[in-house]
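This section describes the prediction task in plain terms. A model, or a person checking by hand, is given the sequence of a single protein chain and must write out its three-dimensional structure as a string of tokens. No templates, partner chains or ligands are provided. The sample shown here is typical of the held-out split.
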Amino acid sequence: MKPDAPPTPARFAPHAAREMASMFDSVSSRYDLLNRLMTLGRDRAWRASMANAVPAGAGVVLDLCTGNGVSLPALRRPGRVVLGIDVSLAMLEDAHARFSGAGWAPRLAAADAFRLPLRASSIDALTVAFGIRNLRPRPDALREIARVLRDGGTLAVLEAAAPRPGWFAPFHALHLRYVVPLAGRLSPDPSAYRYLSQSIFDFGSGEEFERDLSDAGFELERHRSFLLGASRLWVARRSGPRIEDEPGSAGSVHHGADLKGADAAAAANGSALRNARRGGSRARELPQPTTARDREWRVWTTAQLVTSVILLLALIYGLWTYRGLSGDLSLPPWQRRGFMALIVGGIVVFAARSLMLALRLTGPPGR
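The expected answer:
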């Protein structure tokens, strides 16, 4: 069998909107499935944590690089306008199919992230999940993001990161170099997942991104790691000078990403840029979700975790004691082996459950 061709260098080129659109068009059918596999089912919880970083009073929120819209439901609030923009039409069609039958639907548009069809300072908060590493050069993308964000607006970025020095780094690197491309063979375009692996190493572990945020006029408020640093969340506030109302003010060139209708006209003509707000520059207060149930969920999950860890430690102690006394016990060999298997099986089960509960606590409350 002829080996797959390596990822095309064009995907790493500056402003590669067409290449990104083509790649994500080709993998859209199994995008969710492979995300579940490669993140051990935790990516939805991480996206929800990103959404929770958006201030409740944000009236207009843009999810950039929205893909098939999996991040959008967590951004929904009463009275809030939620926008989703991506360069891939196939992914946006999946998003449209996902929400078209619901009572609530976000506003979707296909556009180049370097030339957003929105006026300056028209967005209260902007989120990017697993997409910022695909925007090259990153300083240009951050300047365009800063253009559409209002003064004091929030930027929340969730991204897969390269290994940082430490005991977990070899396992993390092994996962990126071999497991991710291997899982990509389930995709219609395996080269897209070799690109994914290489792009994560190209993005780095986060230090350079934090410097780029500062250079673009953002003040980093907090950051958080998931799954021992495999993914990271950065929350920053726009604090730089006001940027002129001109699409692509970072000096980028529009590479012909397909736009539809008025969005295409807006991107082609800076004077036709749209206001994301219905009117007025001040965000109004929105109803706040209750937190009592969230606290109750966390207390109950913590109690389960503590119980599971106690049982795990008890089984480990029991195994250690049994190994020391087994020579003095008058048991037939099959009973010895059976008893050992029960203890070891219990240790494996409670270790897995403790890990699962610990990971669950790092995400948002369950439903």
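For orientation: The first strand starts at residue 60 and ends at 64.
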